[in-house]
């Protein structure tokens, strides 16, 4: 029974991580730090390699079951499965809710995101040192990359499967980094609203399929969802490892680059709101109070969260 309580607690920690990962500006990695599983998560992810995966897959043969179990234990497989279940269920639930809010209250929703991002940037900047030309150049590069992408991606990239694949790789790899939000990077790439809508339609399609109303709606969402997940797997074991390598070799400059991405991404919610206002004919002057109030709420949420997370160590 004690084991069941431990797994239930781990699942709930996954729910907390997934809820954070689903909103731009709050990092699931930060939540992992707060709930005390970050080091175990990194150890489990970095333990996964092609050799261990192959040993696990060969467990379909009875003679190989002991070795497959050993490999599964080496990557802390039960931990990853239970945590992943919590993360996945929370992401689906939160994105479905966010999709509704983006449809009905886009100004306030993006205002809340703006506050999340701004407060996160303010918190993270306190740990960045720009005292060398190399670090200043890295910070400038990160800011410009996010700032320019925030204006370009939402209107020009579209949501083809290759773009969705790259978005999945980038977003999921960011999940293991404290302070950097995968959903924020989806906003920068112009894919956040598309993916939240896709997940919401997938849930509706699954419900329709289970209730005997046909599978067309579900099948429509399978290609982008699978493509995003495959991209996420690739990103987790390539981009994330590359970032960790960069942090080990040039920690201060890499950190300056990553935090500056968050600062540059402040443009993204403003661009999205401007597009919505242009469609509706409403002016920024009329929408500004709603946007500002929601931004204050988002910033307050991050500041309260930061108070409990203490100092983030990279």
UniProtKB/TrEMBL annotation:
The keyword Cell membrane does not apply. It comes from the Archaea. It comes from Halorubrum kocurii JCM 14978. This is DUF368 domain-containing protein. InterPro entries: VCA0040-like (IPR007163). Keywords: Membrane, Transmembrane, Transmembrane helix. The chain crosses the membrane at residues 78-102, 108-130, 137-157, 163-190, 225-243, 255-275, 287-305. Signal peptide: none annotated. It holds the Pfam family VCA0040-like.
